[in-house]
Amino acid sequence: ATVVAGDVGGTNARLQLYSSAGELLLDRRYPTAEHATFAGCLSAFLAEVDAEGIAQPAAAAIAAAGPVAGNACEMTNLGWTVDGDALSSELFGGAEGAVAVLNDFEAAGYGVAALVGEANAAAREDNTLVVHAAEAVEGAPVAVLGPGTGLGYCTLAWSGERYSVLPGEGGHASFAPRGARQRALAASLEARDGYCEVESVLCGKGIVSIYEHLKEDLGESEEPLPVRTPAEVTGAALDGSCRVCLEAVDIFLEALGAEAGHAALRALCRGGVYVVGGIAPRLKGRLDEVGHLRDGYLYKENAKFSELLSTIPLYVVTDTDVGLHGSR
Question: How far apart are CA 12 and CA 77, in angstroms?
Answer without folding.
Answer: 12
